[in-house]
Design goal:
CATH topology of one domain in chain B: TATA-Binding Protein
Shape of chain A: globular
Oligomer: heterodimer
CATH superfamily of one domain in chain B: TATA-Binding Protein
CATH class of chain A: Alpha Beta
Shape of chain B: globular
Largest sheet of chain B: 6 strands, antiparallel
Largest interface: A-B, 64 and 75 residues
Protein name (chain A): AP complex subunit sigma
Number of helices of chain A: 5
Family (chain A): Belongs to the adaptor complexes small subunit family.
Distance between the termini of chain A: 36 Å
CATH architecture of chain A: 2-Layer Sandwich
Subunit structure (chain A): Adaptor protein complex 4 (AP-4) is a heterotetramer composed of two large adaptins (epsilon-type subunit AP4E1 and beta-type subunit AP4B1), a medium adaptin (mu-type subunit AP4M1) and a small adaptin (sigma-type AP4S1).
Strand content of chain A: 25-35%
CATH class of one domain in chain B: Alpha Beta
InterPro entries (chain A): AP_complex_ssu, AP_mu_sigma_su, Longin-like_dom_sf
Number of helices of chain B: 42
Subcellular location (chain A): Endomembrane system
Chain lengths: ~140, ~950
């Protein structure tokens, strides 16, 4: 299963974090810094899967933004790797060419998208239009 | 330009985020955040009620601040308020805050539960989903209690919306994981399994996660899922790439769903139903075929998605391990990936092939890729890929390719990354031992290992090479020659000096004929390294020197000279000094015969599982070394260690004092299980322990008070009790059964029962060696005045058999009056010709003869007052040595034999007990009070007995127990 998902930029600033296994709040900052250091130090030609402590990291880079997913040993690495891409494509579709700023300023919406795709560390939906259903409904209502 | 915010943008939030982005320094950022936190606090505390929108905005800001890595300790209440809003965005932010920031033991749970209850019954699917997400994220016990019975109903109800079903499935999974006792699946089982047939792919995707988890826990109940999963998989695999529309990802139909189905099937053995199995094999073949087809898209996403399914299918094929055809095809497919330009694929192929190597059907096929893998080890630029290559080489190694693989691994070691060197060293050492056909190759390999990566060679590795050299006559000469040559290097690793010292000390005579390695040359070579070595190595070298005196009398004068010099005999290290003094004296006093006996060649070591393998397993964590590997090792290892051809030779051992187990048994990696003979030597003492061990188990090598050997003739008198006998005694004060004693040869188990003033004790002797003990006798005696206090009679049956004695020895005790000492048990037997003489205290303590007495609070304190003479009371205040847990304490007090009285002491923290000790002549009433002080980790123990000696003895005994 998926343990957590992080979005960080090249400066190491966290832009999104979601944990699917309880991690104490105080330990998160340490873990994030360490995980990010581990991924940022890797070169392009190195493989995208890293053994980290007793689990694995699957990461993917989009321009200055890294998406890092912590998974248990039993997870299929390539499917998680493509899940990340699917997530980014959904963001891209919703924000039409997503950027780091979109993610910062629309944290709540990014969370809605992520929650539609992954719940409790498991993939629940991969169909792009169904993932976006609640958000599109929301924007139509424009109830703010 | 904060216009990037979509929809109902919260302006205040956007401004704040822009401000943060514009901060030039970390300090400025912190300042801005603190200002904002103060602002939000005052808004939340203010008198004016906030509207939903403002609450949402502030809670959202708090979330953002939390993401930046700051602690958030308020706002929870406002978030809970948002849950009852009717607006989706407000509700959603409330739930988000709670699932990110509320942990499962928060006191807010009840409020949250109320809000969830409302949303679940709202029939508004989006609200229901939010509520279900929240349960799935927090998943506390209280939530499970509130909702566990409702969720399955929502999940299988016909009118539930698809999106709600998805959330309900994952929610139920979480509750099942955290509180399995509350989730009753029984009646829902079949309907949950049938979700696999749901026409909505999203529901199937979500349900599989739940079904997989449930199947792992109750495979039988969910067995029907196999055929459903196979037919679902078959429909997906055979569909055209456009059939599944939105679930098709870059021309691959439903890749994530396929992976999850294949993963679910790995919870079960191959289907028994022929039709189902046929269909599944067909699916797997189709997946393998598709890998060979030209790609439908040049995009990497296409091939990744396709390969994700392929790897999962291969995992399933390996899991079944029953279809040779599929296994070989899988292996060939992976072989292609080994040379793929994508690093990710090479990595996964190496990893997957590692498991294929252990299947008998594909082992040979894997071996054909050896050159590619070796090349990967040499040329891959990513250390994690090289590591996988090394793992695979290790897995594919067998007798036919061992020399090549070990050589490649050795040469890789010279440049290997520091992070993986230690593991590589262990692997090389294991392979070299496992597949050694000639031992000279084995010795060469290990010495090379020490030369190349000495720092990473752990004790286990060099202990092991010594064990093997000592056990194999045919390699000893070669080992001496090789190690002698290795030591010629101007700089050699300290581990090499250790091995060199040990081997030359034992077998230097085998190469002494050659003038280039004459005794004196050997000695000078070793001694030239002496000053560069650490204390344990020097100690080992000193022992090697004394062995030299025995092997080569002509070196005696030179070595005595070295021992006599101030840097040895007055060394500030007490261990080195002692060795120097003792060896010097030994060499000048003892006759040649005595020397030869004392310094006899080390006897062979008993065969055991390689300690190196144990170390590798520990390093890699459980499960890393497969069971087959262990069995392999037993099978193959036998060849090197000579299972049948050479057991310990009794004649050789009889002549050797060293036949008693000494701490040099560390070589076998069983230090932890060797309580016998607390030899006064420090760590790293290998050879010398043979002489300095003064333990009673080795009376023939006894050392008198001066520390010199006094007698070489075996003594027949019972040895004095072991120094730790009292400790052993304490172990049994509160229990009647257990292991009384254990050393390398023998384990003694004990079972006892007591009634009034009588007791019966059964002793079980277990022979841990593979040879019979000769003349095994035991005697029980009561020393000194105990004779008049306790009758102890034994009914011994001679036990010489191997393994556990069929008939335990029984000992009967009759207590005449109170006593404080314990009866002694003396055991004598011959092992390999040497007399073993061991004396233990039998754990018969006065409290064993307790009869519990129940009494009321009133009676207790009346008795307590009656026993108020100062000598009748014994009291002790002491520090807790063990857990102060209530249950543990209660169990101990009950084990003591007294009655534990509830509701007697006004302070419920205290424990009060009462009992009567039955002796032949009289009964002694005892009252006990134990007052724990958890804070100070202290106890006060008070005993009042009608006989003062009993109070004192019980107090002593009990003070050691808590």
């Amino acid at each position: 299963m998926i343990k957590f998902m992080l979005m960080v930029n090249r400066q190491g600033q966290t832009r999104l974090s979601r944990y699917y296994q309880p991690v104490e709040l105080s330990r998160r900052a340490m873990l994030e810094a360490d995980v990010v250091r581990c991924c940022l130090s890797r070169k392009k030609d190195q493989c995208s899967f890293v053994e980290y402590k007793d689990f694995k990291l699957v990461y993917r880079q989009y321009a200055a933004l890294y998406i890092v997913v912590g998974v248990t040993d039993s997870e299929n690495e390539l499917s998680v790797y493509e899940l990340v891409h699917n997530f980014v494509e959904v963001l891209d579709k919703y924000f039409s060419r997503v950027s780091e700023l979109d993610i910062m300023f629309n944290l709540d919406r990014v969370h809605i998208i992520l929650d539609e795709m992954i719940q409790n560390g498991h993939v629940v939906e991969t169909n792009k239009s169904r993932i976006l259903t609640p958000l599109t409904a929301l924007d139509k209502m424009a109830d703010g | 330009m904060p216009a990037v915010s979509k929809g109902d943008g919260m302006r205040g939030l956007a401004v704040f985020i822009s401000d943060i982005r514009n901060c030039k320094s970390k300090e400025a950022e912190i300042k801005r955040i603190n200002k904002e936190l103060a602002n939000i606090r005052s808004k939340f505390k203010g008198d004016k009620a906030l509207d939903g929108y403002s609450k949402k905005k502030y809670v959202c800001k708090l979330l953002f601040i939390f993401l930046l890595g700051h602690d958030i300790d308020f706002g929870h209440m406002e978030a809970v308020n948002l849950l009852s809003s009717n607006k989706y965005t407000e509700k959603q932010i409330g739930y988000l805050f709670i699932s990110v920031l509320v942990n499962s033991n928060s006191e807010l749970i009840r409020l949250i539960n109320n809000a969830i209850k409302n949303d679940l019954s709202s029939r508004n699917p989006t609200f229901m989903c939010l509520a279900l997400h929240c349960i799935a994220n927090v998943g506390s016990r209280e939530m499970a209690e509130a909702f566990a019975s409702e969720i399955p109903r929502i999940l299988v109800a016909g009118d539930t919306m698809d999106s709600v079903k998805q959330s309900a499935a994952l929610c139920l999974l979480r509750l099942y994981k955290t509180s399995p006792d509350l989730v009753m699946m029984g009646e829902w089982t079949s309907r949950v399994v049938h979700l696999l047939n749901d026409q909505h792919m999203g529901v199937v995707t979500a349900a599989i996660s739940l079904i997989t988890c449930l199947s792992q826990k109750n495979p039988d109940e969910f067995k029907t899922c196999v055929s459903l999963a196979v037919s679902r998989l078959s429909r997906i695999v055979s569909s055209a790439s456009t059939d599944l529309q939105d679930y098709t990802y870059y021309f691959v139909p439903a890749p994530w769903l396929s992976c999850k189905l294949l993963r679910l099937l790995q919870c079960y053995p191959p289907p028994e139903d022929g039709a189902v199995k046929g269909r599944l094999v067909e699916c797997l073949e189709t997946i393998l075929n598709k890998a060979q087809e030209p790609p439908k898209s040049k995009k990497v996403q296409h091939s990744n998605a396709k390969n994700a399914i392929l790897f999962e299918a291969i995992s399933l094929i390996i899991h079944y391990d029953s279809e040779p055809n599929l296994l070989v095809r899988a292996c060939n497919q992976l072989g292609q990936f080994l040379q793929h330009r994508e690093t990710n694929l090479r990595y996964l192929a190496l990893e997957s092939m590692c498991t294929l190597a252990s299947s008998e059907f594909s082992h040979e096929a894997v071996k054909t890729h050896i050159e590619t893998v070796i090349n990967a080890l040499k040329t891959e630029r990513d250390v994690s890929v090289r590591q996988r290559a090394a793992d695979l080489l290790y897995a594919m190694c067998d007798r036919s390719n061992a020399k090549q693989i070990v050589a490649e691994m050795l040469s890789y070691l010279e440049t290997a990354d520091y992070s993986i060197r230690e593991e590589m060293v262990l692997k090389v050492a294991i392979l070299a031992e496992k597949y050694a056909v000639d031992y000279s190759w084995y010795v060469d390999t290990i010495l090379n290992l020490i030369r190349i990566a000495g720092d990473y060679v752990s004790e286990e590795v060099w202990y092991r090479v010594i064990q093997i050299v000592i056990n194999r006559d045919d390699v000893q000469g070669y080992a001496a020659k090789t190690v002698f040559e290795a030591l010629q290097a101007p700089a050699c690793h300290e581990n090499m000096v250790k091995v060199g010292g040990y081997i030359l000390g034992e077998f230097g005579n085998l190469i002494a004929g050659d003038p280039r390695s004459s005794p004196l040359v050997q000695f000078n070579l070793l001694h030239s390294k002496f000053h560069l070595c650490s204390v344990p190595t020097r100690a080992l070298l000193l022992s090697a020197y004394i062995k030299f005196i025995n092997l080569f009398p002509e070196t005696k004068a030179t070595i005595q000279e070295v021992l006599r010099c101030d840097s040895q005999i007055r060394n500030s290290d007490v261990e080195l000094q002692q060795r120097a003094v003792e060896y010097l004296k030994l060499s000048s006093i003892a006759s040649t015969d005595v020397l030869a006996t004392v310094l006899e060649e080390m006897p062979p070591f008993p065969e055991r599982e390689s300690s190196i393998l144990a170390k590798l397993k520990k390093k890699k964590g459980p499960g890393a070394v497969s069971v087959t590997e262990l069995e392999d090792n037993k099978r193959e290892g036998g060849e090197l260690n000579g299972e049948g051809d050479r057991g310990p030779d009794p004649a050789a051992m009889a002549s050797s004092n060293a036949s008693t187990p000494s701490p040099s048994a560390d070589l076998l990696g069983i230090r932890s299980a060797a309580p016998v003979g607390a030899a006064p030597t420090s760590v790293g003492s290998l050879l010398v322990d043979v002489f300095s061990e003064a333990g009673p188990a080795a009376p023939s090598a006894a050392v008198n008070d001066d520390g010199f050997l006094s007698s070489a003739s075996p003594s027949e008198d019972p040895a004095p009790p072991l120094s730790e006998a009292d400790e052993l005694l304490n172990k049994f004060v509160c229990k009647n059964n257990g292991v009384l004693f254990e050393n390398q040869l023998l384990q003694i188990g004990i079972k006892s029962e007591y009634r009034q003033n009588l007791g019966r004790m059964y002793l079980f002797y277990g022979n841990k060696t593979s040879v019979q003990f000769a003349s095994f006798t035991t005697t029980v005696s009561c020393p000194g005045e105990l004779q008049s206090q306790l009758n102890a009679s034994d009914q011994t049956s001679g036990t010489t058999g191997r393994g556990w004695s069929p008939d335990p020895t029984g000992t009967q005790h009759r207590v005449l009056t109170d006593f404080s000492d314990a009866p002694l048990l003396n055991i004598k037997f011959r092992y390999g010709g040497a007399l073993q003489n061991l004396t233990l205290k039998l754990p018969v303590t006065i409290n064993k003869f307790f009869q519990p007495t129940e009494m009321t609070s009133h009676d207790f304190f009346q008795r307590w007052k009656q026993l108020s003479q100062p000598q009748q009371e014994a009291q002790k205040i002491f520090k807790a040595n063990h857990s102060m847990d209530t249950e543990v304490l209660k169990a101990k007090l009950l084990g003591l034999g007294t009655a534990l009285l509830d509701d007697v002491d006004p302070n419920s923290e205290n424990y009060v007990c009462a009992g009567v000790i039955q002796t032949k002549g009289q009964q002694v009433g005892c009252l006990l009070r134990l007052e724990p002080n958890g804070q100070a980790q202290m106890y006060r123990l008070t005993l009042r007995c009608s006989k003062d000696s009993v109070s004192r003895r019980l107090c002593e005994l009990l003070a050691e127990q808590f």
